[in-house]
Design a protein that fits this description.
Its EC number is 2.1.1.386. GO terms for molecular function: metal ion binding; RNA binding; small RNA 2'-O-methyltransferase activity. It catalyses: small RNA 3'-end nucleotide + S-adenosyl-L-methionine = small RNA 3'-end 2'-O-methylnucleotide + S-adenosyl-L-homocysteine + H(+). It is an enzyme of class 2 (transferase). By secondary structure, the protein is of the alpha/beta class. It has two domains: 217 residues, Rossmann fold (3-Layer(aba) Sandwich); 162 residues, no CATH class. It has 15 helices and 13 strands. The strands form three sheets. It has an eight-stranded mixed β-sheet with strand order 8-9-5-4-1-2-3-10, with helices on both faces. The protein has a three-stranded antiparallel β-sheet with strand order 11-13-12. Strands 6-7 form a two-stranded antiparallel sheet. β6 and β7 form a beta hairpin. α5 packs antiparallel against α8. The longest helix has 15 residues.
C-alpha cells in the first residue's frame, strides 16, 4: 500500500473516531426512569409521596390517574368462597383478582420545585378532570364498552409547592416516600450539603428514590481512542474537573463508583439501607464491548429506612450549622380528587350477577372478558369499585360461567372470560316499536342474521368500537375487525357447530391473537443523546 493510501485510510479512521456515536434508548430514557420508580411504588404499596424537583409534574400527573379498581376487599365484605372454584391450582381463588401488574393506590401526593413556569404545567396536570362531559350512567355520549372514564374509587389530595430544597416544610416530615429524579446534579455547591440532612434526616421517609446521570456512561458516546473534540457536551462549570457533562446546568456528574460511595455514606449517617444500580441500556451494541463495564445511562438508588435514634433532630441541627438563607415554600395548588359516592358500597352478589347476565344479553355477547365487563360503568359502580365482587358474582351466578384456567387463558387474569350459559336465547329487538316498520331494510328476512346497521341501530357494542384495550392491561388481546375474523358472529352465538366446539374445548379463539410488538412504535427515544442525557428535552434531565 502506498504512503498516500495509508495516509488516506488513517485520516478516514480519525474522522470516524471524531464523530459522536449514535446511542438511542428504547423506551426513551426518561420513561425508563419513570417506569423504574413506578415499579418500586407498586411493589412497596406506596400511598403518600413527595416529588422533590417535580418539574412539570410528569410523575405526579401519572399518579393522579385513578386506579381502575380498589385493592381487594376485606373479608367482612367478601368472605372466602365456601367451595373453591375448579382451577389449575396456579390461580388463587377469589377474592384475590390476581393482578400481574398491581395498581398504585396513592391518596396524598406533593411536589416541590423552584421553577414557576414548570410548576404551571404541574398544577394543570394534577388538577381534577373537568366536568364538561356527561359520564353518568345511561349517557348516550359514551355508549361503548368503556364508559367509566376517570371513575375514581379513592380520594386523592395533590399539593404543589414553589420553593427551594434548603427550606424546611413541616408537611413533608415523615412522608412515606420521597422521589428525586435527575435533581441532585443540578444543586448549587452551597445547597448540596443540605440534600441528605434535609431529605434523609428531617423528612426521613420510609423510602427514598434518587437518580442521577453517571459520568461513567458518557464514554459510550465516543470511541475509546476518540480525541477530546469528539465529545459534545458542556465542560464542568465549576472548573474542578476536565469532565464534559450532559447538560449545561449540571454542577457535577459522578462516576458509578462515586455515586455508590455517596449513597453508602449517606445511608450509614442517616440510618438507611441502600441498593444501587443503573437503568437505561443503549439499543445499539457497543462494538468495543463496553456495555457491561459502563452500565446504564442513569444511576439509581433505593434507600429503605431502618431504626435510628434522633435522625430528625440531627438533620435539623445540621441545617442550622449550614446557615442557609431560606424562604417559606409557597403553596400553589391544593387539588382534591373525590371518590365516587358508591365507592366501597357494593350491591348484593346475586343482584350483580343478574345485571351482568342482562348486560351480556343486551350487548348480544355470549362471551366477554372480565375486564371488558368491568369497564361497563354501571357494573363497576354496582361492585363499589371492587373487581373481586364482579368475579365472585359471576362464580355464584347459575347463568354465568367464569373461564380462567383453560389452556388459552394462560393463567392471566386479563384473559379471564365470562360465558353466558346457554348463549343468547332471546332475540334482540333490532327496531324499537316507536321507530315503526319503515326502518326495516327491504331485503331483511325474519330469522336471518342481523342486517347491516349503524352503531345506534344496534344499541350496543360493535366492532366499530375499535381497540378494546382501553385499560392497557398486559396480555389483552386485540379484537379489532369484523366479528367473523375471530370466528364468531353476534347473532350466531349459542347455536351451531362452532358453539358445540367451544363448549367441548373452552377455546374462544382470543388467546392466540397478537397484540403487536411495542418496539414497532415510534418514540422520542429513537434519536441520539439530545443534550447528552437521552431525555425528551434539554430542560428535563
Amino acid at each position: 500500500m502506498s504512503s498516500l493510501a495509508k495516509a488516506t485510510m488513517l485520516e478516514s479512521i480519525q474522522d470516524d473516531c471524531a464523530e459522536e456515536l449514535k446511542v438511542t434508548f428504547h423506551p426513551p430514557l426518561f420513561l425508563q426512569r419513570r417506569i423504574w420508580a413506578l415499579d418500586i411504588l407498586r411493589a412497596e404499596n406506596v400511598t403518600k409521596l413527595l416529588d422533590i424537583g417535580c418539574g412539570e409534574g410528569q410523575l405526579l400527573s401519572v399518579l393522579c390517574q385513578p386506579a381502575p379498581w380498589l385493592a381487594p376487599p376485606p373479608r367482612h365484605i367478601l368472605p372466602a368462597p365456601t367451595e373453591a372454584p375448579n382451577t389449575s391450582g396456579l390461580i388463587p381463588s377469589s377474592p384475590a383478582y390476581n393482578d400481574e401488574i398491581p395498581n398504585i393506590h396513592t391518596t396524598h401526593i406533593m411536589g416541590l420545585d423552584i421553577c414557576a413556569s414548570d410548576l404551571e404545567f404541574a398544577v394543570q396536570g394534577c388538577a381534577p378532570p373537568q366536568a364538561d362531559v356527561n359520564l353518568n350512567e345511561g349517557s348516550d355520549m359514551y355508549a361503548s364498552y368503556f364508559t367509566n372514564v376517570d371513575l375514581r374509587w379513592e380520594d386523592l389530595e395533590a399539593k404543589l409547592w414553589k420553593g427551594g430544597l434548603e427550606a424546611i416544610n413541616e408537611e413533608f416530615v415523615n412522608v412515606e416516600c420521597i422521589v428525586s429524579t435527575e435533581v441532585i446534579e443540578h444543586l448549587p455547591p452551597h445547597i448540596f450539603p443540605a440534600f441528605a440532612p434535609m431529605l434523609l434526616g428531617v423528612y426521613h421517609p420510609r423510602l427514598f428514590l434518587v437518580t442521577t446521570p453517571p459520568y461513567t456512561f458518557n464514554a459510550r458516546f465516543t470511541a475509546p481512542d476518540a480525541p477530546p473534540t469528539a465529545r459534545r457536551g458542556y465542560p464542568d462549570p465549576t472548573k474542578r474537573t476536565d469532565r464534559v457533562f450532559r447538560h449545561s446546568d449540571h454542577k457535577f456528574e459522578w462516576t458509578a463508583d462515586e455515586f455508590k460511595d455517596w449513597c453508602d455514606s449517606a445511608a450509614r449517617e442517616w440510618g438507611y439501607d441502600v441498593q444501587v444500580s443503573t437503568v437505561g441500556r443503549a439499543s445499539e451494541v457497543d462494538e468495543w464491548g463496553r456495555d457491561a463495564e459502563l452500565g446504564g445511562a442513569t444511576s439509581v438508588a433505593v434507600f429503605t429506612r431502618r431504626d435510628f435514634e434522633g435522625r430528625e433532630e440531627k438533620g435539623r441541627a445540621t441545617l442550622q450549622v449550614l446557615e442557609l438563607r431560606t424562604e417559606p415554600h409557597e403553596l400553589l395548588a391544593n387539588h382534591k380528587h373525590t371518590a365516587h359516592e358508591d365507592s366501597e358500597k357494593p350491591k348484593p352478589l346475586a343482584e350483580i350477577g343478574l345485571h351482568v347476565k342482562a348486560k351480556m344479553e343486551d350487548l348480544r355477547e355470549g362471551f366477554m372478558r372480565v375486564e371488558d365487563l368491568w369497564f361497563e360503568r354501571d357494573i363497576a359502580v354496582m361492585c363499589g369499585g371492587w373487581i373481586e365482587m364482579l368475579v365472585r358474582a359471576v362464580e355464584d351466578c347459575e347463568f354465568l360461567d367464569l373461564k380462567r384456567d383453560g389452556k388459552e387463558m394462560k393463567g392471566k387474569r386479563a384473559n379471564w372470560v365470562v360465558e353466558l350459559v346457554g348463549g343468547i336465547t332471546e332475540p334482540k329487538n333490532l327496531w324499537p316499536a316507536e321507530r315503526g316498520t319503515d326502518h326495516i331494510p327491504f331485503h331483511w328476512i325474519p330469522g336471518d342474521e342481523q342486517p347491516e346497521s349503524s352503531e345506534d341501530d344496534w344499541g350496543g357494542s360493535t366492532d366499530m368500537e375499535g381497540d378494546v384495550s382501553w385499560n392497557d392491561s398486559e396480555g389483552e388481546d386485540d379484537m379489532e375487525g369484523p366479528a367473523d375474523s375471530i370466528g364468531w358472529s353476534h347473532a350466531g352465538w349459542g347455536t351451531g357447530p362452532e358453539w358445540e366446539e367451544v363448549k367441548a374445548t373452552g377455546h374462544t379463539g382470543w388467546a392466540e391473537e397478537s397484540q403487536g410488538d411495542i418496539s414497532d412504535a415510534p418514540t422520542t427515544g429513537d434519536i441520539s443523546t439530545g443534550g447528552w442525557d437521552g431525555d425528551e428535552s434539554d430542560d428535563t434531565t
